[in-house]
Every structure is written in C-alpha cells, then in structure tokens.
Amino acid sequence: MATGRVAEQAVTGRVPRRRARGECRMAQILEAAAEVFHTVGYEGATTNAIAARAGISPGSLYQFFGNKDEIVRALIETYVVGLGAAHVAALDGEDLAALSLDDLVGRVLDPLVRYNREHRAFKALFARTDMPRALSEATGPLHEAMLQRVVALLTARAPQSSPADLRHAAIVAIQLVKALMPMIAVDDMTESERYRRELHLLLVDYLSRVEGS
Amino acid sequence: MATGRVAEQAVTGRVPRRRARGECRMAQILEAAAEVFHTVGYEGATTNAIAARAGISPGSLYQFFGNKDEIVRALIETYVVGLGAAHVAALDGEDLAALSLDDLVGRVLDPLVRYNREHRAFKALFARTDMPRALSEATGPLHEAMLQRVVALLTARAPQSSPADLRHAAIVAIQLVKALMPMIAVDDMTESERYRRELHLLLVDYLSRVEGS
DNA sequence: CGACAATACGAGCAAACGCTCGTGTTGTCG
DNA sequence: CGACAACACGAGCGTTTGCTCGTATTGTCG
C-alpha cells in the first residue's frame, strides 16, 4: 500500500538510473497489456498473463500498478494523449469552417484508422457497446475527449445549430465510427479500404445533413 | 410462460405432466437468464444467480442445461425464432421490389426496435463489437439469420448488383443498427425516437446508394 | 402398495482469478 | 563498506465461478 514514492522522487528533481528503469518497466508492462487485451479481450486478460508477456513476475507488476484497472487507465491515458496529438497534427492551422466536409472527415478519420491499426488493443477497450463497470469508467475520459473534439469541430462549422443538436450529432458520428472500425482495423487491406471508404461516405452524408439543417 | 405444452399434447396424445413441468421450468430459466444478462451482462451473469432468479437451485438448473453456454444458445434460439416471425409478419405478402426504400426500412427496423424493447437482454448478447469466444459462437446463428434476411431483401431489390456487394452492404447496414440500437432501446422515449429516426434516415440514404449503383 | 425414474435440492469441489507476502537482489549514497 | 530503499521474484492466499454429487422428494405405472 506504499504510495507517494513517485511524488517524493519528483520533488528531488534528480533522475537516477533506478527511476529510468522504472519508467521503462512501466512502458514494458503497458505494451504487454495492450497485446494481451488485443488477443483475449479485457475480461480474458489476466494480470499474470500480462506479467508473463512483459517478462516479469506478478509481484513486480504490482510494484508499478496497484491493480488491473490501474493498468487499463494508464493504457487509456496513453491513447488519449496519442490520439489527441494525431488529431491536433491533422487539423493544425486549418480553417475549420473553410474545409470541405469530405476533407474534414478524412482528416479526422484517417488518423483514427491509422491509430487503430498501430494500437491493436485500442478497439478491444474502446469500441464496445457493453462494458463492465470498471472498463467503462476507465474509457470514460477517452470517450469524453473524443466527443468534445467532435462537438468543437461541428460547432465551428455550424454555429447556428443548438449545442444539444450538435452533441447529439457527434454521438451518432462516433457510434458510426465505432460500429465500422472493427472491420476497418483488419489485416486484409482490400476489405479494410472498402469499409473505410463506406464509413467516410456515411459520415459525410450524415454530417452534411446536420450542417444543412 | 405456458409454452408448447398444448402442441406437445396434440402430437403424443398423452399428457405427461412431468414433461410439461420440465418445459415450464426451461422457460422459467430462460426468462430468469434474460433478466440477469440484462442487468449484469454476459460475463457478470453467474449460473447461481440465474438459478436464484428462477427460484430454483443450481442443481436443478443443470438438469435442464448442461452449462452456461447452453442457456445462452437456447435463449438466442428463441430470439432467432421470435425475430424471424416478427419480420415475416412485417413483410408478409408485400412486393419487396415495389416498396419504397423508406417503407422497407421501416418495416424491418420497427419490429427490431420493438423486439429490443421487449427483450432487454437481446442487445446485451447481440449488440457487441467484442465478444468472448463462447458468446460469439452462440450468437453466430442469429447474426447469420439476420444477414441472410437482409441479403435476400437487397437481392430482391437490386438483382443487378453482385452477391458480394450485397453481402457487404448488408453487413454495413447491420453494423449501423447495432451501433445505434443501444441508444434507441432506452426508456426515455423522446431520445429514443430521435435516434430511431436518425438511424432510419441513415439506412435509407446508405441503401439508396447501394441500390443506385 | 412398491419400484423406478424424473425432479429438486444445496453444500461444496476444482479451477481460475486478482492480488499478497516473505524473501532475496541491486543500485544509491553517506 | 554498510545501510537503505527500490526492484524482483513466485508460491500461494482468499475469493469467486461454473459445475457436481449424494440425498430427498414427487409423479408414474405395474
């Protein structure tokens, strides 16, 4: 139950080799967790399996994460940061209101697809309609971050619409992405590209109706 | 909860009270299972909880179903039958090629929405993008039945399209339904109706593109 | 009735899980 | 060096889960 050791070290300002090794281990564990979540899903993933995949013992794992949910939360945190950065990069310096809807959808969707492909565990944790309590609490921030981002985009493009309508539209758009992402983030590139294009069209059509009304 | 007892009687000519009681118990168990699945989800549902909800002991439960998956399979079987009947009724005697797309979508979607509302466990078992092995095997027949039905509909309306394209379109359509159903099968009727209408529009737009091409 | 099978029970088993704890190892610093 | 804290280990604890088994009850039929 020893907490606060990290804070203590942070205050000292020194970065000894110990700490570097510790952070390396954390990254190791998160990577292993991602692989296990990807292959067997959230409930199928055991902490012992994650430890084994990371090449360490269960005891060592619990020196860095207090419990399974903390691992999930940390992993999701990296997703929030990573995806946020990808989207900022994709929209940086653009005039949101001037972009064609087709272009805008592409700039949001394509990084998301790429991120899904590069982080296979992403959809195992995120793209579910039914979640255990612990998981839905952990993914809450990720959902909220995406929702806020989409709402902000829509607000910039259709300022005359009510916030409630925009939020509603954003929810539908995100659900559409979640529904088709499992078929897009797949190894068969022919199938994948086909579904991606369909989703793209679907989003453009749906959002043009939202902006138009 | 009076099930096929009468039909059984007609076939055998005799009245095996034992057997009638057994079938009643089965229905009791399935109903209890549906309630438990609805409230705590598939993995949260314990066989003991199902037995308790049905008002029987675990031992008794296992006299009718060999294991948890068999319960799920039986429950899904009732869904396949029930939904099939609802859809046959909704499309009975209609000229599929002559119906407007809007009308057709309504006739398929509305019974589905009603069925979801009346069988709350339905989406807990069906509308998931990520499933345990056992559950996805159990829901396989239900997915396949729905897919075949949609493919048949589309084939009747767009015979010039390739079977592969139609199957592909059917998959997308079903995914759209699964994505928005959790927000439709909800108690707040205002919200529910709003999402239902959006899904309806989405499907009409998408399928008109499929038929048009 | 008496024999038998179907039904019902519920304590509890074996396995799996998240997690702990006692012990040993390694890097840091006075 | 010696003391100490972080790191590492892995057997195994406590709990939960799906499921069993020995036993008691009930309906059926010769």
UniProtKB/TrEMBL annotation, chains A, B:
Keyword Glycoprotein: no
Domain HTH tetR-type, chain residue ranges per copy: 23-83
Gene3D superfamilies linked to this entry: Tetracycline Repressor, domain 2 (1.10.357.10)
UniProt xrefs under InterPro entries: DNA-bd_HTH_TetR-type_CS, Homeodomain-like_sf, HTH-type_TetR-like_transc_reg, HTH_TetR, TetR_C_15
Keywords noted in UniProt: DNA-binding
Alphabetical list of PANTHER family matching this protein: HTH-TYPE TRANSCRIPTIONAL REGULATOR PKSA, HTH-TYPE TRANSCRIPTIONAL REGULATOR RUTR
Protein name per Swiss-Prot or TrEMBL: TetR/AcrR family transcriptional regulator
Origin species: Pseudonocardia aurantiaca
Lineage: Bacteria, Bacillati, Actinomycetota, Actinomycetes, Pseudonocardiales
